[in-house]
């Protein structure tokens, strides 16, 4: 009878090139008793090419809730389990989150085995100065829901990163341009680390035409990197709020200053609090 539980390893696999795999991932996959895979046939072929033979169990978006208790039982029985996805890092716009959360809740050790990630790969090669960026994942498939989501993202000053499938790329890019504006730059990172890898940047206003010019540009898996909203100068209301907060923050804690500023200006407390946070962290505000 086992007296200790097994370990859940969250293992990154290649996103294209077989060489994306790390030595540590190979070592783990060779020693675990069980591999939970998004597509057992795909992963079986991958591990076979890597010279690894192991028992598989399916864990995908349609069965994750049902399969998780059985995998937790295996882990509690002392088996070591590796969680992998079809490509890249599990639980990043891929199945696995429920299993990882359940393992933590059950007191099972969860060990990440880092490696390839399409979003980081694309950002590193895009040449975009982006100290702050937001990875959204896949936008909604339905056009109206996609546009609604983009409206919510429009004012954010962060570089926006999305995944997109080839059959939706044209309409997605059209919605990006229509909702966010054509002046922003977009980087297409397509088929990363694969034979036909391509990284191309241009204004959003030209993106649809560029895609239409060559049908091959619409093929493959995409990472889309879109420039964030440009900061605009404060309007009079914002300037008044900033001046009010500057006085209050000299004498009061941040939360109390934001609360009083909201009462004095009629601006939402949450808005006051967010601006107060930026002013507290901005050395130029301390000097004024």
UniProtKB/TrEMBL annotation:
Pfam families: RsmI_C, TP_methylase. Its EC number is 2.1.1.198. Residues 7-207 form the Tetrapyrrole methylase domain. GO terms for cellular component: cytoplasm. It comes from the Bacteria. The keyword Transferase applies. SUPFAM superfamilies: Tetrapyrrole methylase. GO terms for molecular function: rRNA (cytosine-2'-O-)-methyltransferase activity. Keywords: Cytoplasm, Methyltransferase, rRNA processing, S-adenosyl-L-methionine, Transferase. Catalyzes the 2'-O-methylation of the ribose of cytidine 1402 (C1402) in 16S rRNA. InterPro entries: 4pyrrol_Mease (IPR000878), 4pyrrol_Methylase_sf (IPR035996), 4pyrrole_Mease_sub1 (IPR014777), 4pyrrole_Mease_sub2 (IPR014776), rRNA_ssu_MeTfrase_I (IPR008189), RsmI_HTH (IPR053910). It is found in: Cytoplasm. It catalyses: cytidine(1402) in 16S rRNA + S-adenosyl-L-methionine = 2'-O-methylcytidine(1402) in 16S rRNA + S-adenosyl-L-homocysteine + H(+). Residues 241-280 form the RsmI HTH domain. Belongs to the methyltransferase superfamily. RsmI family. This is Ribosomal RNA small subunit methyltransferase I.
């Amino acid at each position: 009878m086992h007296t200790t539980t097994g370990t859940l390893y969250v293992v990154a696999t290649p996103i294209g090139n077989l060489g994306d795999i790390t030595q540590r991932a190979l070592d783990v996959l060779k020693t675990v008793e069980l591999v939970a895979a998004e597509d057992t046939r795909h992963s079986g072929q991958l591990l076979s090419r890597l010279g690894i033979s192991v028992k598989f169990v399916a864990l995908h978006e349609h069965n994750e809730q049902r399969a998780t208790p059985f995998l937790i039982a295996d882990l509690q029985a002392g088996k070591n389990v590796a969680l992998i996805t079809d490509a890249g890092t599990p639980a990043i716009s891929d199945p696995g989150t429920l299993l990882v959360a359940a393992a933590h809740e059950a007191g099972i050790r969860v060990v990440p085995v880092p490696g390839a990630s399409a979003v980081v790969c694309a950002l590193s090669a895009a040449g975009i100065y982006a100290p702050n960026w937001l990875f959204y994942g896949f936008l909604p498939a339905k056009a109206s829901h996609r546009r609604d989501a983009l409206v919510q993202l429009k004012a954010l000053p962060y570089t926006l990163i999305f995944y997109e499938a080839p059959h939706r790329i044209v309409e997605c890019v059209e919605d990006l341009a229509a909702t966010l504006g054509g002046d922003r730059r977009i980087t297409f990172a397509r088929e990363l680390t694969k034979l036909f890898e391509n990284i191309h940047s241009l204004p959003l206003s030209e993106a649809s035409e560029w895609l239409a010019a060559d049908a091959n540009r619409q093929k493959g898996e995409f990472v889309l990197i879109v420039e964030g909203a440009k900061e605009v100068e404060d309007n009079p209301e914002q300037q008044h709020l900033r001046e009010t907060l500057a006085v209050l923050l000299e004498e009061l804690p941040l939360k109390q200053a934001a609360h009083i500023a909201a009462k004095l200006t009629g601006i939402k407390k949450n808005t006051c609090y967010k601006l107060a946070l930026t002013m507290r962290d901005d050395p130029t505000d301390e000097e004024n």
